[in-house]
């Protein structure tokens, strides 16, 4: 599955050949469908398992000369039989095969084939940060920093814009969209998070443009004097609906929060991820680590939550558990694989989330000896299996599976 290198000539922006988001669609018949997205383009892929016959590896009789072997091979490939021997017998494997391989000469293997069914493009002016399938099995949403669009899977050249946060003057921009997701079983509901730490609940039945007809979830306990760093760390990097449809899990830089959609004043639980870094926020800002975006996930029953941290740490928490610190596991790389080299400097890509705070400078290096964790080794992406206690963790170019 490929997203090729593209160039947006209107904005003079190069679109990298990478995949940022993957979502499975509703299974139809024996085929699987999934959506993939890079910064600007979404593709729908069809994956189907097919049975393929392959010729078995046969041992050649050492007493048969190479010329006879060549003749036998030509006879086998052409399907023509050789003349009979003097005694009237003929070789069994040189009989006419009617264009098919006999079972004793073929191995049947299952091969997954993929085909791009549709391409959804030219609908986003900014980088896509979210795609989510609707429970109706017919539509999906795509979101960037300022807009959320709803697509029909069968229509590739038209979408409906339901959220538009772009101001008339970009200097008035105060927040951007960071994540968006459909409700697990109500096709008319969705939620999206912002860089100000808000989660907005939307009912598409109220209006065609859902900018104002929303319910806002915000942490009232976090109110107080705002500083430069407090605004940055409250930005929600990821959010997930629980399977019950009532609870939402969100992740900002310092904490993991569980929300009840019936309570809009505060989260029902807050879990601290790396609180020991709070005194080091100025250093994390200097080397751009404070802008890292960590994913979060829930298990099938919504009672356990997981997220990542630095030093390749996996943090797992349980709802209602007495131990608020949860469980910490280190995701180790394979000892047989060499560690990937990482650059010492990492310039920060310009984005609207930085534009809202007035950040235009490049990242600079700072001494990490004063920070008690490895900032270059970080677990950003992870996913929980919907029905089994399996967690997939992505570290660098490696993928690890853990039984929770």
From TrEMBL:
GO cellular component terms attached to this protein's record: protein phosphatase type 2A complex
Key word Repeat present: yes
Q: Which UniProt keywords apply?
A: Repeat, WD repeat
What single Pfam family name could you report for this chain, choosing any that match? WD40
Q: Does the keyword Repeat apply?
A: yes
Q: Which is an annotated GO molecular function term of this record? A: protein phosphatase regulator activity
Q: Which Gene3D superfamilies match?
A: YVTN repeat-like/Quinoprotein amine dehydrogenase
Query: Which PANTHER family does the entry link to?
Result: PROTEIN PHOSPHATASE PP2A REGULATORY SUBUNIT B
What biological function has been recorded for the protein in this entry?
The B regulatory subunit may modulate substrate selectivity and catalytic activity, and may also direct the localization of the catalytic enzyme to a particular subcellular compartment.
Q: Provide the family line.
A: Belongs to the phosphatase 2A regulatory subunit B family.
Stated name of the protein: Serine/threonine-protein phosphatase 2A 55 kDa regulatory subunit B
Species assigned in the record: Nicotiana tabacum (Common tobacco)
Lineage, uppermost ranks:
Eukaryota, Viridiplantae, Streptophyta, Embryophyta, Tracheophyta
């Amino acid at each position: 599955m490929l997203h090729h290198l593209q160039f947006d000539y209107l904005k003079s922006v190069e679109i990298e050949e990478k995949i940022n988001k993957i979502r499975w669609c509703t299974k139809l018949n024996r085929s699987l469908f999934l959506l993939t997205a890079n910064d600007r383009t979404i593709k729908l892929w069809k994956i189907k398992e097919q049975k393929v016959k392959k010729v078995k590896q046969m041992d050649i009789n050492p007493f048969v000369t190479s010329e006879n072997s060549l003749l036998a091979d030509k006879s086998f490939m052409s399907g023509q039989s050789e003349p009979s021997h003097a005694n009237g017998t003929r070789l069994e494997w040189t009989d006419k095969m009617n264009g098919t391989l006999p079972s004793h000469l073929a191995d049947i293997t299952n091969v997954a084939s993929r085909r791009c069914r549709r391409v959804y493009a030219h609908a986003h002016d900014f980088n896509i940060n979210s795609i989510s399938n609707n429970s109706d099995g017919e539509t999906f949403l795509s979101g960037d920093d300022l807009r959320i669009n709803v697509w029909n899977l069968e229509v590739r050249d038209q979408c409906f814009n339901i959220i538009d946060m772009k101001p008339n003057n970009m200097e008035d921009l105060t927040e951007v969209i960071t994540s968006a997701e459909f409700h697990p079983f109500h096709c008319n509901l969705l939620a999206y998070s912002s860089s100000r730490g808000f989660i907005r609940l939307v009912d598409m039945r109220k209006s065609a443009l859902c900018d104002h007809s929303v319910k806002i979830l915000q942490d009232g306990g976090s109110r107080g004097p705002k500083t430069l760093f407090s605004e940055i760390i409250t930005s929600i990097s990821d959010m997930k609906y629980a399977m019950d449809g009532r609870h939402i899990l969100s992740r900002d830089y310092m904490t993991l929060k569980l929300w009840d959609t019936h309570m809009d004043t505060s989260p029902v639980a807050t879990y601290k991820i790396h609180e020991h870094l709070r005194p080091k926020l100025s250093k994390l800002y200097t080397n751009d680590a404070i802008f890292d975006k960590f994913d979060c996930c829930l298990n099938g029953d919504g009672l356990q939550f997981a997220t990542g941290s630095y030093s390749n740490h996996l943090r797992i928490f349980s709802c209602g558990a007495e131990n608020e610190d949860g469980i910490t596991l280190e995701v180790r790389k394979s000892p047989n694989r060499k560690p990937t080299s990482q650059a010492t400097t990492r310039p920060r890509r310009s984005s609207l989330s930085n534009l809202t705070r007035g950040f235009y400078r490049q990242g600079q290096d700072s001494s990490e000896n004063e920070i008690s964790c490895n900032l270059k080794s970080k677990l950003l992406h992870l996913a929980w299996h919907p029905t089994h206690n399996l967690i997939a963790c992505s570290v660098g170019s490696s993928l690890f599976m853990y039984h929770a």
